[in-house]
Amino acid sequence: MATRVQAPTGGPRDSEEGVALDGVARSFGATQALAGLSLHAAPREVVAVVGPSGSGKSTLLELVCGLQEPDAGTVRAARAVLMPQRDLLLPWMDALDNAALPLRLQGAKRDAARAQAHPVMAELGLAGFERARPHELSGGMRQRVAVARTLLSGAPVLCLDEPFGALDAITRADAQAWLAGVLAREPRTVLLVTHDVEEAAVLADRIVVLSARPGRVVAELPVPGARPRHPTGQDVVAVRALALDALRGGGA
C-alpha cells in the first residue's frame, strides 16, 4: 500500500519540516527504480544522496516533491520544491523576474516580488545582473538565479538535483561555497543529489549511499564538523573514502 502525507501548510512546526520515506518502491513498466527504500532527513538537515546512474536518485526527489506517487511505502514531507539539473530559466524574462517567479505565482504583485527578490540576488553575487536575460549570463550565474528562485519559493524542504553538475571545476567550487553560506544563513531541510562524493562531504550533514538499480540504501555516513567544510579537510577526505567504498560495495 502506498501513502503520501503532506505536512500542514501555513507555518509548519519544525517537527513537520523534515522528510521521511519508509519502504518506498517505484517502478516504470518493467523497470524497478526503487525497492524498499527508507530515508529520513531531520528538520534543517542537509542530506546528500549519492549512487550510480539509474539508482533512482531523481525519482526519489520527485516523490518527495509530490511529482510522482510511490507504488508502495510511505512518503512524508513538508512542502518541498525541486531544483532540477537544468536551470529552466524562462528566456523571455530577465534574471530578477526569473528569481521572483515563485512569488508572482503565490499572488505577489510584480514590484513587490522584485523588491523581495532583489536582496537575494545581491546575496548570491548577482548584483548588477538583475536585468540580464538568461542567454547573457554564464552557466554559474544561471545556476545562482535558479537557486535564488528555489529559495524564494519559501518551501521548508529543498530538493536539489545535481545543481552544479554542468559547471566547470572552479565555478563549481565557488558555487558550493556560496550555497553553503546561504544554507548557514537560511537553514532548510535539503536533499542534495550529486554524483560528486566530495561535494556531498563538503555540503551535507550526512551522506546516503544508494545501490545500483533498484535503488536501496546501502550506507548512511555522518559527516563530522560544521558546514561549510574545505574539500581537503581531514573529515571530508575520510568520509569521501568511506562513501566511495560503499558505492563499490553497493554494486556501482
Question: What is this structure, in a nutshell?
Answer:
This protein is of the alpha/beta class.
**Unreliable residue runs:** 8-15
Roughly how much helix do the residues carry, as a percent range?
Answer: 25-40%
CATH third-level topology of the largest domain: Rossmann fold
Biggest β-sheet: count, sense, barrel? 6 strands, mixed
What sequence of helices (H) and strands (E) makes up the elements? Answer: EEEEHEEHHHEHEHEEH
List the helices and strands and how they pair.
Blueprint: E1 2-6, E2 19-28, E3 31-41, E4 46-50, H1 57-64, E5 72-77, E6 80-83, H2 95-105, H3 110-123, H4 139-152, E7 157-161, H5 169-185, E8 189-193, H6 197-203, E9 206-210, E10 217-222, H7 234-249
Parallel strand pairs: 1-5, 4-8, 4-9, 6-7, 7-8
Antiparallel strand pairs: 2-3, 2-5, 9-10
Description:
This protein has seven helices and ten strands. The protein has helices at 57-64, 95-105, 110-123, 139-152, 169-185, 197-203, 234-249; strands at residues 2-6, 19-28, 31-41, 46-50, 72-77, 80-83, 157-161, 189-193, 206-210, 217-222. α5 (169-185) links the parallel β7 (157-161) and β8 (189-193). α4 (139-152) packs parallel to α5 (169-185).
